[in-house]
Design goal:
The chain is mainly beta. It is built from five helices and 100 strands. Strands 60, 61, 63, 64 and 65 form a five-stranded antiparallel sheet that branches. Strands 68, 69, 71, 72 and 73 form a five-stranded antiparallel sheet that branches. A hairpin with a 5-residue loop joins strand 31 and strand 32.
Length: 1296
């Protein structure tokens, strides 16, 4: 057989083989498979055979002059080398080894480039590239590329999981394939003794297990996703939880926890997929948890006894469910649909639904609580117009507000047998009132931000958003407050449950309705019809509602059928529930094949009798008989050569993309700047296909900025994909907000960060980064807006020094603020030093005045002052000196050098300073080692090491200057202390021994407090007011926010009684915003708050009114006068002539003002004027809204109606005055026209003379220029004539 063996090669990972060499051969690979070397086996030979195209063709090479008997052909392990080794011997020297090495590098040619490679994936015999659930992509040299990979070639391998198909699953334990093998269905194995769906042992509390559906993935299979996986993988069910007697349930958006009140142990419940869990409640009898997710807008349920997994019970018409309340007696579920707004109710399965209250009563409902035995419900509402505590019966009847005074942000609400308790987040307190709104009292005050509240026995429980904790205190006085759970990020709803909470009776138990029974007060009830259910009138006059699908009428009541499925499920004939999408999928999901009966015939299925080659999970191409996976069907890519996989697909609406690029799948439009930018913006990747050098765009991504303590602004960004690093650099463009011209900074670098040093402090800029490769720039319109930090201020001026007469050693300093502050001046620093010393001491001053105390007597001191912004200490003022009068220096550190100085002050002048250098005695102690961290928004926990039996001082401040000159401090004999500080600040801490000696300080520690997102914006004010817009400015609630903050800017029109809300997202500490679409002369109320939960900052402002009309004139006639003015529309673009003007008149003799009327013309006739009276006329844009919005008036005095005068004489005088004005104007016009004629004549003469000279000129070849003829005929302006330096037929000559 050895003499008949041949050499075969596979280029498809063993799926298909081809014969390449006849007979047995030794063979080996080199250069990562780029070359195959072979030599005959079992006979003498002197030739090698090699192939560089995967065995398609072979070449020979003579490696020896004499034939050699070869024993082996080897290369280095890994097949990376191009050097091969032959082991053999000559026939005559059979016992002597012959070793030959052959280097094949020259055969392969030049090193490979990127164009010499292709991507390749192994597949099975049907072309399926997903093997064991994943697709592997290799980078492979093309067979005919004459190049070598090299030993350092690192072959990339990309592995991606595929969507699951039936082939990725096998039958689970306890199941077997059905007898009809064509169905590929796993059915229960009757010979299996166990229960496959039982929970595993052990099943730890808090974990989950897969409740099998009869299938499991093949071992090693990594597929994920797809409908098949959802159908076949087991249902995720939590392990059963033991019941607790008394516990708290609280939500933290992404998880829900249970806190045992007896043991104090908190455990997370086994829930998945939570995105915004904010409201919850619990069915104690059935051990089932209900919760609402505001991100997904659904209500879900999970029974903790392990009977089923998570299920969605309400998923439609929900918008921000902020409260849930389960009524255990009647088994009803209430919720607050705050986004609509509504309060709704349903049965516990969510399929009998009814709106109880709507927007006619509700404005912004927040929390809800029920009193089932009394048939009452209470809720909080914190709408702008009517915030308060409300009460109604549980069917929504008799709704009224019981508390409205002193309530603004009522958050959580809870009740006991007699009282209502609620948290007021704006007033930061907890209050209570009885069921009728009487006997109101405050239980706790000055709470940072209380949210949810619960009552149990004699205590109240609440959580706090600022302190991130759950607290407990007496419900009578608020005493004995303690923390139960802390460090709860995003804590939301919270409720307490205990055995006996669900006890009681109401009218719905003794007299139920056939559908929804809602309890009412006085032990009554209300029968309601759920939405979408019809009814009919009984002879008794009572309305009987029809039972909805899935319910049966039993004893006059609609009872839910057993095993009734949810709306998104299909009910099998055997009572099982399956997902509705599993129906008619050729899979026996029900177990009795009822889900595969009465299914429509698929037009694409093969005709009866045709033996299709493709499985039911594949689509068969019609003409080429190729199988493609079903998920590739109708994906806008032709996987079949005949395109039949893209026929009969669902049609989509035509997408129009003007001036943009339309993705090939027609799903979306992208801008041309996003085309060929290296990022996949289209789901089908079509925006990155067929890219050329002309269409390629290199655009940076993730452009960010940050500023440090020194005020330096650093930009960082992500390098564009596939950008050639060696030939491309970045350019930075910037401009201040409001400018249109960009300024540039050339980085001459390809680094993805840069420091901007050209920006002015305390200014708002727009910044963008562009790529330039060689000489081609790639423009971008993507920019970020940043606010530069405050800069260093200029020096203060006019420093003045004086001595305090009644006290020795005190100097009074006064000065004027700096000319340019470059920010907000926080304080001033006054430094002082002895006259010829280089050591300076300093004090802080909040204003431009400071008293420096405890100075040495009779000593000459030099003073200087500087302003301080958030950037730091600014430039120092000019120094001035003054002499004091005897002091003592104390409280120094042991074994530390000091310099002491003194000088004398007399009437004749000050003496020079005298210095003494001393070193304190003793041994210098070692400094403590300090650790500090913020535990909540106002508390810092400090710990340190150091000697015992001493007093430590802990010093802290918000700046280095404040820390070393005037810090806050606290003393303790312990090695730890908790310090209460202001919220939303960054503090510097250090510790030192202060008694019985002064010890050296520790290193400082920076502690940034946990920010409080409910504080109002600071320093809201108007920067600029115009007619139709206003620029407002404010600071963030706390300094240096580390994430984007979303502000809501409400603009209320105080005249039109309308309002608008805008959103501003930024992380700048100082924010400027332009409010547009305002009206001239309007009055507005601006409110700015952070999101929906912060306190607000507000200001009232008025825009600039319309200007007064220009050129107001009076012309007198016989019995009246005419007022004329220019149209206001000529200079006011926001004025329309249809608005018109209104005219007023003031009679100075009668001291009387009269409204004359309004007009849309530019003149107005005034009659019935009295002789001898003086009048003032005003014309302005007509006032709107009862005179609340007017233009500025133009005023003109008229006093020409003399007593007893003749109106005709007045008219003649007026005519004379008009003539006196008109005649000079006409004379000036005539003079101007004469001067113009003279200028035109002189210009004509000059052009005529120039042309004559040009016509008489000739070209001088030696001079290379044209020579004009000389003579007086050129006129006096020859020096201004141009010199013609050459002519060409290619250059047009223009005479103008």
């Amino acid at each position: 057989m050895a003499s008949k063996s041949n050499v075969y090669v596979s280029s498809s990972a063993g799926v298909r083989w081809r014969e390449v060499l006849a007979g047995p051969h030794y063979y080996s690979w080199g250069d990562h498979g780029g070359i195959i070397m072979a030599v005959s086996q079992g006979s003498e030979t002197s030739q090698l055979k090699y192939s560089t195209n995967e065995g398609e063709t072979w070449k020979t090479f003579t490696f020896s002059e004499k034939p050699v008997f070869v024993y082996g052909l080897l290369t280095e392990p890994g097949e990376k080398s191009t050097i091969f080794t032959i082991f053999g011997s000559y026939k005559e020297n059979g016992h002597s080894w012959l070793i030959l090495q052959i280097n094949t590098t020259d055969v392969l040619g030049v090193p490979c480039t990127e164009n010499d490679y292709k991507l390749w994936s192994p597949s099975d015999e049907r072309g399926n590239e997903c093997l064991l659930g994943h697709k592997t992509v290799f980078k492979r040299r093309t067979p005919h590329a004459m190049c070598f990979n090299g030993e350092d070639f690192d072959r990339p391998v990309m592995v991606s999981n595929c969507s699951c198909t039936r082939e990725d699953f096998e039958c689970d334990f306890g199941f077997k394939l059905s007898e009809d093998l064509s169905l590929e269905v796993c059915v229960p194995d009757p010979e299996f003794a166990g229960k496959p769906s039982s929970p595993p042992v052990p099943c730890p509390v808090g974990s989950s297990y897969r409740k099998t559906r009869g299938y499991r993935k093949i071992s090693g299979d990594t597929c994920s996703g797809g409908d098949v996986e959802t159908r076949l993988e087991g249902e995720l069910v939590p392990c059963p939880l033991a019941e607790e007697n008394e516990f708290i349930l609280y939500a933290t958006r992404y998880s829900i926890h249970r806190y045992d009140l007896s043991s104090g142990i908190s455990e997370e419940l086994p829930l998945t997929g939570l995105r915004g869990a904010v409201a919850l409640d619990f069915d104690y009898d059935r051990n089932c948890l209900y919760w609402a997710d505001v991100t997904l807008d659904i209500i879900q349920r999970l029974c903790l006894n392990g009977s089923s997994g998570q299920e969605i019970i309400v998923s439609t018409s929900l918008e921000t469910v902020e409260a849930l309340a389960f009524e255990p007696i009647s088994q009803l579920l209430y919720w607050v649909n705050a986004g609509v707004p509504k309060i709704e109710v349903s049965n516990r399965d969510g399929d009998l639904r009814l709106t109880v209250l709507n927007s006619s009563v509700l404005e912004r409902p927040r929390a809800l609580t029920l009193v089932p035995k009394e048939g009452l419900m209470f809720w909080t509402d914190w709408g702008d117009s009517r915030p308060g505590i409300y009460r109604s019966e549980m069917d929504g009847a008799s709704a009224l507000c019981i508390v409205s005074e002193g309530v603004r942000w009522p958050n959580g609400i809870s009740v006991d047998d007699h009282w209502i308790y609620w948290t007021e987040a704006y007033m930061d307190r907890i209050e209570r009132v009885d069921f009728n709104g009487q006997q109101r009292s405050v239980i706790l005050d000055n709470l940072p931000h209380p949210y949810a509240i619960a009552v149990f026995k004699n205590e109240i429980y609440w959580n706090d958003w600022s302190q991130l904790s759950i607290f407990r205190a007496s419900k009578f006085s608020g005493s004995r407050m303690e923390t139960l759970v802390d460090h709860l990020n995003g804590v939301m709803d919270m409720k307490i449950f205990y055995r006996g909470k669900t006890a009681g009776q109401n009218a719905c138990i003794s007299s139920p309705c056939n559908l929804l029974c809602l309890p009412k007060s006085n032990n009554s009830r209300s029968c309601k019809c759920p939405e979408g259910v019809s009814g009919h009138l009984l002879p008794s006059g009572e309305v009987r509602y029809d039972c909805p699908p899935g319910y049966l009428l039993k004893n006059g009541t609609c009872v839910k059928e057993e095993n009734t499925c949810l709306p998104n499920q299909y009910r099998c004939s055997n009572g099982n529930c399956i997902n509705s999408i599993w129906q008619c999928d050729n899979d026996n999901d029900c177990g009795d094949m009822s889900d595969e009966r009465n299914c429509p015939v698929d037009a694409t299925s093969p005709a009866p009798g045709f033996p299709g080659r493709c499985s039911r999970f594949e689509f068969e191409c019609q003409h080429v008989r190729k199988c493609v996976p079903n998920w590739k069907r109708c994906d806008s890519v032709k996987d079949c050569q005949d395109g039949t996989d893209e026929l009969n697909c669902p049609t989509h609406s035509t997408l129009s993309c003007p001036s943009r690029f339309k993705c090939l799948d027609g799903e979306t439009c992208v801008t041309m700047a996003e085309r060929c930018d290296g990022f996949l913006d289209c789901s089908d990747s079509s925006d990155e296909r067929n890219c050329t050098d002309e269409t390629l765009v290199y655009k940076v991504q993730n452009l960010q900025w940050m500023a440090d303590f020194s005020g330096t602004v650093t930009l960082t960004w992500t390098r564009p994909k596939k950008m050639p690093v060696g030939s491309c650099v970045y350019s930075i463009y910037y401009r201040t907000v409001g400018e249109s011209v960009w300024k540039s900074v050339e980085t001459h670098s390809n680094k993805t960060n840069s420091v901007l040093k050209v920006l002015k402090p305390d200014c708002t800029y727009q910044v963008k980064v562009q790529v330039q490769c060689l000489s081609k720039p790639y423009n971008t319109n993507d920019f970020i807006t940043l606010r530069t930090p405050e800069g260093l201020p200029d020096p203060p001026v006019h420093l003045q020094l004086s001595l305090k007469r009644e006290t020795e050693g005190v100097v009074i300093c006064q000065w004027a603020p700096p000319a340019n502050a470059h920010g907000l001046i926080r304080e001033y620093v006054v430094e002082y030093s002895r006259a010829d010393s280089k050591e300076w001491s300093s004090v802080r001053a909040p204003r431009n005045f400071s008293a420096i105390e405890q100075l040495q007597v009779n000593t000459l001191y030099t003073f200087r002052v500087a302003a301080v912004t958030s950037r730091g200490v600014g430039n120092w003022s000019d120094s001035k000196s003054i002499r004091t009068v005897k002091g003592t220096v104390s409280n120094l550190t042991a074994h530390t050098p000091y310099e002491i100085s003194a000088s004398a002050k007399t009437e004749l002048g000050d003496s020079p300073l005298s210095f003494a250098h001393v070193v304190t005695s003793g041994t210098r102690p070692s400094p403590p080692s300090l650790k500090a961290k913020a535990v909540n928004q106002t508390a810092v926990e400090c710990n340190w090491t150091g000697p015992r039996n001493v007093v430590y001082g802990i010093f802290y401040a918000t700046s280095f200057l404040e820390l070393y000159r005037n810090p806050n401090s606290a003393n303790t004999t312990l090695h730890n202390i908790t310090v209460i500080v202001n919220r939303d600040e960054q503090y510097l801490f250090l510790v030192r021994v202060v008694s019985p000696y002064q010890g050296p300080p520790s290193d400082y520690i920076v502690v940034k407090m946990i920010p409080d997102n409910r504080l109002p914006p600071r320093h809201l004010h108007a920067v600029h007011l115009a007619k139709t817009f206003a620029i407002i400015k404010w600071e963030s609630p706390y300094d240096s926010p580390d994430q984007d903050m979303l502000y809501a800017v409400a603009v209320k029109d105080l005249i039109r009684k309308t309002d608008r809300i805008y959103k501003v997202k930024t992380r700048n500490s100082t924010v400027e915003y332009t409010v547009k679409k305002l009206e001239p002369g309007g009055r507005y109320h601006i409110i700015v708050q952070l999101g929906n939960m912060s306190k607000e900052a507000s200001l009232k402002m008025s825009t600039v009114s319309l200007a007064a009309p220009d050129a107001l004139k009076i012309i007198a006639e016989n019995d009246h006068i005419l007022l004329f003015w220019k149209s206001l529309a000529l200079k006011e673009t926001h004025f329309s002539e249809s608005r018109g003007y209104e005219i007023h008149m003031f009679d100075s003799v009668l001291n009387y003002t009269a409204y004359l009327g309004n007009t849309t013309e530019n003149f107005f006739k005034v009659s019935n004027l009295k002789m001898g009276h003086n009048y003032s006329f005003t014309v302005q844009a007509r006032c709107l809204f009862s005179g609340q919005m007017c233009g500025e008036p133009a005023m003109l005095l008229y006093d020409e109606l003399g007593a007893g005068g003749d109106p005709a004489a007045s008219k003649m005088g007026r005519s004379t005055d008009v003539a006196a004005i008109v005649v000079p104007i006409l004379f000036l016009l005539l003079v101007t026209m004469g001067v113009s004629f003279v200028v035109l004549y002189m210009r004509h003469r000059r052009l005529q003379n120039s042309f004559t000279a040009f016509a008489n000129s000739h070209y001088n070849s030696r001079l290379g220029s044209a020579i004009f003829s000389s003579g007086d005929d050129l006129g006096d302006e020859d020096d201004e004539a141009p010199m013609i330096t050459g002519f060409s037929d290619d250059v047009p000559m223009v005479i103008a």
